[in-house]
Amino acid sequence: MAQIFDTHAHYDDAAFEKDYTNIIESFPRYGIGRCTDVASTMESVDRVLFLAHTFPNVYAALGIHPSECRDLTEGYLLDMEKKCADPKVVAVGEIGLDYHFPEEDPAPEVQKKWFVRQLDLAAKLQLPVIIHSRDAAKDTMDILRDRNLSLAGGVIHCYSYSTEQAREYAAMGFFIGIGGVVTFKNAKKVRDVVKNIPLTSIVLETDCPYMAPVPHRGERNSSLFLPLVAQAVAELKGISPEEVVEVTEHNAERLYNL
Q: I want to staple 205 with a disulfide (CB 3.0 to 4.6 A). Which of 2, 177, 225, 254 is the partner?
């Protein structure tokens, strides 16, 4: 029987420090099968690997979020390359561009430098990539177009752009990550994307502890809320939640080469 695959979680986050074991061990009761825990800072990499080796249904993705790349070094990337040889590492991520807070985040040129370096690392290792892109649609697309032929696929995480661009990403071999935002009634753009791209291009994700779906909006998110996301996708596409779970689980397996 198909089970939901959470393709993007952060159980390494301090928000789960006291109860991550209880949550992950309760996955089967909520129809959750597996998840990928995703690093975003230099400090989180070892924690993500620890979780992946502690729980058989948890995989690891290693990368540095664009907002955290100011102090990234070539030496750190070399160390991460060694850690990516771990058999539980299934992707390089979360990497990308984020221009939402220009006064706080690293300058765009700094972000682009380390985005490209981490893409090149993924290409070298032939691992898929997990892409974070916020208010950086053109630069993200331009860079990924330039390097797409060398990449082993990937996912545009927490997708927030147009349907037209989602179709282009799908044609390039990328999946579109859909999470709790799809349950927000004012999230017209994301809901239109779900309606208008094939289910075979969609994977489910939480980005937990962030982005909890309705009726838990504002609460700490977790994989246990993903049935609500599957239900919302099913309603938008006029199909059953069971079909959404089955197809997106298969998509996740293809994304992560499992």
A: 177
Rounded to a whole number of angstroms, the distance between the first and last alpha carbons of the chain is: 17
Of the candidates 152, 145, 86, 76, the one whose C-alpha atom is nearest the C-alpha of residue 117 is 76
Cα angle for residues 257, 49, 73 (degrees, 5° grid): 95
DSSP characters for the chain? ---EEEEEE-TTSGGGTTTHHHHHHTGGGGTEEEEEEE--STTHHHHHHHHHHH-TTEEEEE---GGG-TT--HHHHHHHHHHTTSTTEEEEEEEEEE-S-TTTSPPHHHHHHHHHHHHHHHHHHT--EEEEEES-HHHHHHHHHHHGGGS--EEEET--S-HHHHHHHHHTTEEEEE-GGGG-TT-HHHHHHHHHS-GGGEEE---BTS-PPTTSTTSPP-GGGHHHHHHHHHHHHTS-HHHHHHHHHHHHHHHTT-
Quick one: tokens of 65? 């979020």
Q: What is the pLDDT of residues 79-112, one digit of tens each?
A: 999 999 999 999 999 999 999 999 999 999 999 9
Structure tokens that stand for 94 in this block: 């979360």
pLDDT in tens, 17-52: 999 999 999 999 999 999 999 999 999 999 999 999
pLDDT value at residue 1: 85
